[in-house]
Write a structure and sequence with these properties.
With about 180 residues, this protein is mainly alpha-helical. Helices cover about 40% and strands about 10% of the residues. The protein is built from six helices and four strands. The chain is globular, with a radius of gyration of 19 Å.
């Protein structure tokens, strides 16, 4: 495999496992059998997978009602009130990430030298903002198709248990995260 970055999906595909199983193994989840865990760790090592485990520091998070995130003034107050900024903001969507970039610039914080910013959804605006926004591409049409399929299935069988569905995503690296 001749790729720069190896993903959990790459490991899963090479072993014929689900991405969820590989993720659990890499995070030492106790529900996995030891042989599965060992097989995943061995393959990840062989593929030179770089697993970065990040501990969540909630003082770096803004976990309030999402209806406020579009309010520039509100978001700026939240960022300005942080005693210390994280090394990176990973935002729920590109719209919020673009707001974060504008606010950080207003606060004279250099992106990505002091703080990196990443969005999610690969909106066209991600390529207009300076620095260009690192984002995650989602396959909207596939998500829509799967959502419609799940809705129709639920209508046909209302007692069916809830299901979790994963859709493949792809990181799009730009200047807002430097050379990650």
């Amino acid at each position: 495999m001749n790729k720069e970055k190896i993903t959990i999906q790459d490991i899963a595909d090479s072993l014929g496992l689900s991405r969820n199983t590989v993720s659990k193994a890499l995070n030492n989840h106790p529900s996995l059998p030891g042989d599965t865990h060992s097989k995943v760790i061995q393959r990840a090592t062989e593929m030179n997978y770089k697993h970065a485990r990040i501990d969540l520091n909630e003082s770096f998070c803004i976990l309030e009602d999402d209806r406020y995130f579009a309010d520039y003034k509100w978001l700026k107050e939240r960022l300005a009130s942080m005693k210390k900024l994280p090394s990176a903001f990973v935002c729920a969507n590109d719209f919020i990430a673009i707001h974060v970039i504008r606010i950080l610039k207003d606060l004279n914080i250099r992106i990505p030298e002091e703080v990196m910013v990443c969005g999610f959804d690969n909106a066209p605006e991600s390529r207009i903002v300076e620095p260009h926004l690192t984002t995650v591409h989602i396959h909207r049409s596939e998500m829509g198709f799967l959502a419609a399929e799940m809705l129709l299935s639920r209508i046909e069988n209302p007692d069916r248990p809830p299901q979790v569905t994963y859709v493949k995503t792809k990181p799009i690296f730009h200047q807002s995260t430097g050379h990650v």
